[in-house]
């Protein structure tokens, strides 16, 4: 079973005890991490490990300050699986508690626990009253049916109970989907001495592995994930929901900024105009007017822009969902379904939140026709629904598509005729874009493998599939592999997969020395030294000797007599030719010795090698040519 990764967030009014509770739960003082520590790749501001066993890993995020909370919640929304709403027993629900509740609603957070802190500050009789007050306030929120846990974070009273409640809640929760193209909205960019550029953020979807080639959007920069860290430790791979620091090669700190998005494929949309569905906060202080400047928080980006209505000129108070458009001043990276929050720049307040219906909005006319069109897009066209199902399921048989899209079979079948769809088997369908993504992925991985193992024929298929198999069904991977071979992008030799144009070779730095060495072996003829001495005399380092030896043998440039003695291939062929010329259909050791004048030390292994290579066959004391 795959391990599951969860992150819980702390929400609540300032001074209600979020940081103290985080410390009581994790022993990490998230407030005390100083600036200099922040530069260290291994320490993450506000993130603390809470619990880990073979099954799950849980981290807590506690961010200082109200503004940072909003930013963090949006950036991490795909990563936050449970929110602890902290309410101090002596104060009850306060304005920021309400604002956080609203933001959590906009972001679609579904799981919560209420922690009533500072229980030591109120009398026992009062506690029931406090609880009831909080209950009234939390009605109709995600915390409506959440458990209430009483704690005193200073004396640790109730902490263990809260902790076990968190663990059991998450154990009963399904793992988010770690499949899909990797996406990580960048939260921080910094440099670490000796390591270069490091970015931090929560993996929004998919997973990434050390060594993988990635793209930074909207800028379109190509980078490589050189090293990955999670909570102080190096990790080979990180998954959706995990907070990670990634050391990138191929890019300078100055080229990146918060709001940029690290992705594994370029199939994400870069846009400035988005059609959205949103809801406004319940106690809007000021009117929201047509084309009013807003600050849009989406992923880790905070972009200024304007709100455009098609059915009104202002919102005063509104409970219903509003369909409208956001025209942004800068490009963002987004896709259908992403959540966002709008805030008023001055005075700063949260206005609304919602989700992206259409990442590629256009200019529309004011009026109900436009609203109807956006409404249609909200439901999605049959093609969009099929595409969405395939993006999630990767490749699906028809009955499953019917189930997931709730569309009739005939309309699915007619849509599937489009070039966007491919059938990989008689009745199993996928998206052309998935095949392209996978082919890119194969090429990246194989090309990286070639760069590390230039002497190997190619990457082992099992190794190539290993990590991808978590994301994609094996049948799909096999299909894409065959497809790549057919299109002459890839080459398959036994279980080894190579780029079509790849030719195995000694690493560039060692080519000349290897040639020298081969020349010397050739000059020495039969009277060779130990093979390792040739390597050493030409200054080829120990750790490469075995690989080069293996390569030269594989390429038939040298032939082994025994473990130590090797001949240059030309010399070996000469020996065979001379022996053949000087003997009839069979010969014995004595004859061979006379013809080749070899010492016994080399003679016996040479003849045995001839048997092995099927030039000859041993019959009693003689060898018979085959
Ligand atoms: N007596 C008592 N004080 C608490 C408790 N939790 C927090 N505090 C105190 O309340 C103050 C604010 O706590 P802090 O964790 O910084 O609040 P935050 O702003 O929500 O992170 C600090 O002085 C804490 O020591 C508690 O359970 N009992
Ligand atoms: Mg705090």
Contiguous helical run count: 19
Kindly state the number of beta strands.
35
Beta-strand share of residues: 25-35%
Major pleated sheet? 8 strands, antiparallel
Q: Approximately how much helix is present in the residues?
A: 25-40%
Report Rg: 33 Å
Bound molecule kinds, no repeats: guanosine-5'-diphosphate, magnesium ion
Mean pLDDT: 89
Distance between the termini: 55 Å
**Rough shape?**
elongated
- The helix-and-strand class reads alpha+beta
Low-confidence stretches: 39-43
What brief labels describe this structure?
626 residues; alpha+beta; 8-stranded antiparallel β-sheet; 6-stranded mixed β-sheet; 19 helices; 35 strands; 35% helix; elongated; binds guanosine-5'-diphosphate; binds magnesium ion
Describe this protein's structure.
It is elongated and about 110 Å long. Helix 3 packs parallel to helix 4 (95-106). It is built from 19 helices and 35 strands. Mean pLDDT is 89; it is low at 39-43. The protein has 626 residues and is α+β, with helices and mostly antiparallel strands. The strands form nine sheets. Strands 7, 8, 9, 11, 12, 13, 15 and 16 form an eight-stranded antiparallel sheet that branches. A six-stranded mixed sheet has the order 2-3-1-4-5-6. Strands 17-22-20-19-23-24 form a six-stranded antiparallel β-barrel. The chain starts with a strand and ends with a strand. The chain binds guanosine-5'-diphosphate and magnesium ion.
